[in-house]
Amino acid sequence: MLRVSVYVPRMGVMEAICPAYRIFNTANDFLKIEGKDPLFQVDYVGLDEQTRLGEGQYVVNASVLLKDLVNTDLLIIPAIFGDMDEAIAANQEALPLIAALYHRGTELASLCLGAFLMAASGVLKHRRCSTHWAYYEQFRRMFEDVEIVDGAIITDDGRLYSSGGANSIWNLLIYLVEKHAGREIAILLAKYFAIDIDRNTQSQFTIFSGQKKHADDGIFSIQKYIERNVDERFCIDSLARELSISRRSFERRFKLATNNSVLEYIQRTKIEAAKRSFENSRKNVNEVMYDVGYNDTKAFRMIFKKLTGLTPLEYKNKYNRNSHVA
Predict the structure, then answer these.
(1) From its phi and psi, is residue 37 left (phi > 0), alpha (psi between -120 and 50) or beta?
(2) Three-class DSSP category at 308
(3) CA pair distance 69, 7, nearest whole angstrom
């Protein structure tokens, strides 16, 4: 039997803790219906016998304290909530225990912002992971030696697993069940919990606002100019001349400040503007394309799909409120 331990973090998110416990036990139920033995032994573990969550609204009882957990096959690390530095500090005692379990052979799986705890334990150094798209920049600032897989729903890096934001946790949990119990049980779980089992990107949910928490005033002014003039076809050399520096120096400074190349930033800004237009206007694809400075339908479609996972028409049909009015 595979032992699955669900860590109950201080400052944890209840909505990320329950699914991890529920899904493996539900997999056991399906196995029993098929006349097979249960495969998973699932327990809550914590730093405390009781952990209060949601401003004291919920209490989760741990079957075993994390410090007493010598061996487990899979440790689930659910999302934390609030200020990330405070949440990591609240779980400081757990970090060396998590690392020790990993080095003894335990698989680790972080759910959404649980990636911050997994990274803080040190096991993700020079490795890859997913987390909620809205926290990419903060994660990169805090853990420069960890690679965020942009847009990924699931990242599998050896014995380290991680999920993207919010409901992506279900995709990772089903992925882990499939790994140990097979595709048939995974499909049953996906149908039972109404989860899109093969969803592979959170790109369509991403809202690009640009990295502006930096001290380079010159680059900040260029960012604001790009965002105010999305209809323009920008020339990188001209943008560099605005700061009276060479193109090479400009591109280096821009990348350092924003974590995007100039071209990436321009594309993401234009596509974000296009998304807002598709959501809120009756304009067709060509009209929106021209509004954000593109005149090549093929290029616009290719970049839009690369950044969102959907074609412009698919995005419009999915998110425009007028498309859903009977």
Answers:
(1) beta
(2) helix
(3) 11
User: What CA–CA distance (Å, rounded) separates 189 from 301?
Assistant: 35
Nearest partner of 200 among 155, 167, 153, judged by Cα: 153
Show Cβ contacts of residue 204 under 8 Å, excluding neighbours closer than 6 positions: 308, 309, 310, 315, 318
CA 54 – CA 10 distance, rounded (Å): 10
H helix intervals, the chain = 14-33, 84-90, 94-103, 114-120, 136-142, 168-181, 183-192, 217-228, 236-242, 247-258, 262-280, 285-291, 297-308, 312-319
Tell me the chain's radius of gyration from C-alpha atoms. 23
- Which H or E run includes 82? none
Q: What is the mean pLDDT of residues 210-227?
A: 90
Q: Which residues contact 228 (CB under 8 A, 6 or more apart)?
A: none
Q: Residue 30, SS3?
A: helix
Going by pLDDT thresholds of 50, 70 and 90, the confidence category of residue 150 is confident
Give residue 263's Cα distance to chain centre.
Answer: 23
> Among residues of the chain, what percentage have pLDDT more than 70?
95
Cα separation of 53 and 3, whole Å?
24
The answer to whether the beta carbons of residues 87 and 11 sit under 8 Å apart is yes
Higher-pLDDT residue of 325 and 166 is 166
**Nearest Cα residue to 179 out of 152, 201, 200, 161:** 161
Nearby residues of 152 by Cβ (< 8 Å), 6 or more positions away: 130, 164, 200, 201, 202
